[in-house]
Amino acid sequence: MTEYHGLKKIDDWRWLMPKSGGMRTEGMIYASEKMLEHIVHDKASNQVSNVTYLPGIVGRSLAMPDIHWGYGFPIGGVAGFDYDTGVISPGGIGYDINCGVRLLRTNLELSDVSPKLEKLISTLFTNIPSGVGSTGKINLNRNEVMKVLEEGSKWSVKKGFGNQEDLSHTEDQGQMSSADPSKVSQRALERGREQLGTLGAGNHFLEIQVIDEVYDEQAANSMGLFKGQVTIMIHTGSRGLGYQVCDDYIKILQNALKKYNISIPDRQLVCAPVTSDEGKDYFSAMSSAANYAWANRQCITHWTRESFMQVMGMSPKDIGLELVYDVAHNIGKIEEHNVEGKKRKLIVHRKGATRAFPGQPVIIPGSMGTNSYVLVGTQKALDETWGSTCHGAGRTMSRTEALRRVSGGELKQRLAKEGIIVQAREYKTLAEEAPEAYKDVNMVVEVCHQAGISKKVVRMSPVGVIKG
Questions:
Q1: What is the pLDDT tens value at each position of the chain, 468 positions in all?
Q2: Per annotation, catalytic residue among 68, 204, 302, 391
Q3: What are φ and ψ of residue 28, in 5° steps?
């Protein structure tokens, strides 16, 4: 059996990390052999191992092909823990709680939008606030923020930012019922007051795309997708509110380690028993932040529709802009899974990983200027990865290194030559998010497809992007 730095090759797409030392279970990394060098050099594989030390872990500690170094858990990490005996860890969900992505389909083709593409990008950029610390058009009082945290996308729809059909095409219908806004700090609530309906910065974006390849005609048809179709992808999360929730509970759960006699190999893996007061409080607060993120993407969807109507001069029916799906990729979920022939209640951590239940649409954004994909979940994913797959390209270069190597202004010109219009608050963000700072999303998706944990449906290429 081929080995690479202690990882044993199962096939061309899966590498086993044998149990050793204090590991409670094995690890599994989904990757091509070519990808492993960076994964090992990045020390993200060490984080896969560290996760196996956590109490109550069920099955393997898993890593998707977009794996890279993260806080505690690797980004691209997935792990399931027994609900009664296991733990919940903020590091396994991430700071940007329910960072996620949604895809809108249109009735338009590129020839319909090309003459007005620059105007569309400019209007979207004006109508959808973006950038670091950006504030939006919705200014909420504390009580209204609490309602958003409780109701999620349903709050947005009730306020006129969308329709019931949107809810039926959103994971959990855009609302985790486990939310309890009273478990969210005053500081987090304050940060959420003015940021609803904002894109933010970093790797978040709104993109106008065109489907350039169809792999599965039947699945594409069922989602209303076709070659040459214009689509809109929205990628953002819970903004400062979600960050604050994570930060607050990392501090709270540090005290829980001693209280519950939990030993961890990395202090960033702070955790608490799922059923403890601290664990339940964090899960309720995390669920609240997840609801905020869904409400946020729903509001942005509304302004996207308004922008298209404004520029195209067409009716909503003619434009389309129906929601294909909205899925989270930084979240913890209580789910029932088949474990050794028996149903067990687990808390599944997905950090930089997307739920991929059989038949479910999976939306995978690329890095700026590269392809994005729609996949579909599989039974094999349910059997092997708790119904999970990749979430994007995955970084290979730090933002500091990207800034050193890339000029944002030159990148904008380069993308323009490729027919991609980009509008951003500052060149610094463009440089930090340059395509060369990321893995090849085509290879990441190919690994998931070949491993059978999700299947390719369509590929999109970008024609216009707005960034913070």
A1: 588 889 999 999 999 999 999 999 999 999 999 999 999 999 999 999 999 999 999 999 999 999 999 999 999 999 999 999 999 999 999 999 999 999 999 999 999 999 999 999 999 999 998 766 666 688 899 999 999 999 999 999 999 999 999 999 999 999 999 999 999 999 999 999 999 999 998 899 999 999 999 999 999 999 999 999 999 999 999 999 999 999 999 999 999 999 999 999 999 999 999 999 999 999 999 999 999 999 999 999 999 999 999 999 999 999 999 999 999 999 999 999 999 999 999 999 999 999 999 999 999 999 999 999 999 999 999 999 999 999 999 999 999 999 999 999 999 999 999 999 999 988 999 999 999 999 999 999 999 999 999 999 999 999 999 997
A2: 391
A3: -140, 125
| Phi and psi at residue 7, to the nearest 5° | -90, 130
β-strands 57-68, 205-214 pairing: unpaired
Q: What CATH number should be reported for the domain whose range is 3-86+97-396+438-467?
A: 3.90.1860.10
- In the chain, where the domains are located: 3-86+97-396+438-467
Determine whether 41 is an active site residue.
no
Burial string for 285-296 (b: 16+ CB within 10 Å, else e) reads bbbbbbbbbbbb
DSSP per residue over 357-371, as a string?
-TT-EEEE--STTS-
Q: Do 155 and 309 form a contact (C-beta atoms < 8 A)? A: no
The sign of the torsion formed by the CA atoms of 33, 35, 38, 44 equals negative
H helices of 103-262, in order, are 110-113, 117-127, 142-151, 153-158, 164-168, 186-192, 217-222, 239-259
β partners of residue 225: none
Phi, psi (deg, nearest 5) at residue 320: 95, -105
Percentage helix, strand, coil for the chain under 3-state DSSP, each rounded to 5: 40, 30, 35
Contact between 204 and 429 under an 8 Å Cβ cutoff? The reply is no
| CA distance linking residue 250 with residue 254, whole number of Å | 6
Any idea what the Cα angle at residue 393 is, between residues 324 and 249, rounded to 5°?
85
* 336 half-sphere exposure, CB direction, 13 A CA radius: 3
Beta strands in 340-447 (DSSP E): 342-351, 354-355, 361-364, 372-376, 388-389, 421-424
Is the whole model's pTM more than 0.90, yes or no?
A: yes
- Please name the residue that has the structure tokens 């389909």: 105
Determine the 3-state secondary structure of 318 from DSSP. Answer: helix
